[in-house]
Amino acid sequence: QLQASGGGWVQAGGSLRLSCEVSGNIFRIDDMRWYRQAPGKQRELVAVITTGGNSNYALDSVKGRFTISRDNPKNTVYLRMNSLKPEDTAVYYCNADVLSLNYASEYVAGKYWGQGTQVTVSS
């Protein structure tokens, strides 16, 4: 289960930090990602980070303004967003590749989504 938080309303130029914690009977978390979906648009990948901390930003518009990071002991991924613009307004979703154990102690691999957190940037 992924629980995202940290969204809200901010004026242009402001900052927010999103958090997303993975919970459950986790054996390992591989890549973690942030996506966003603006009204009337398709969901798009924002950034991805590997277990080792290597990151990649899929959108040129966020490079230099957004920073993805993770805390492995806390099973949490973050997205620090600076210099926010109205066009960053969207619902932000976290996503993770998780290897977990089921009730039968069997490994189960899956790609899981958080519930989304709204970010609104006013001009």
Can you describe this structure?
Strand 9 and strand 10 (107-113) form a beta hairpin. The chain has 123 residues and is an all-beta fold. It is 0% helix and 59% strand. The model has no long low-confidence stretch (mean pLDDT 96). It is built from no helices and 11 strands. It has strands at 2-5, 8-11, 16-22, 26-37, 44-49, 55-57, 66-71, 76-81, 90-101, 107-113, 117-122. The chain is elongated. The strands form 2 sheets. Strands 2, 4, 5, 6, 9, 10 and 11 form a 7-stranded mixed β-sheet that branches. It has a 4-stranded antiparallel β-sheet with strand order 1-3-8-7, with no helix packed on it.
Unreliable segments (pLDDT under 50, ≥5 consecutive)? Answer: none
Cα-to-Cα separation, first versus last residue? 34 Å
Helix content: under 10%
* Radius of gyration, CA atoms, in whole angstroms: 15 Å
Give the overall silhouette.
Answer: elongated
Number of helices: 0
Mean pLDDT: 96
Reading the helices and strands in chain order gives: EEEEEEEEEEE
* Major sheet: 7 strands, mixed
**Beta strand count:** 11
Secondary-structure-derived class? mainly beta
This entry's quaternary arrangement is single chain
Estimate the strand proportion: over 45%
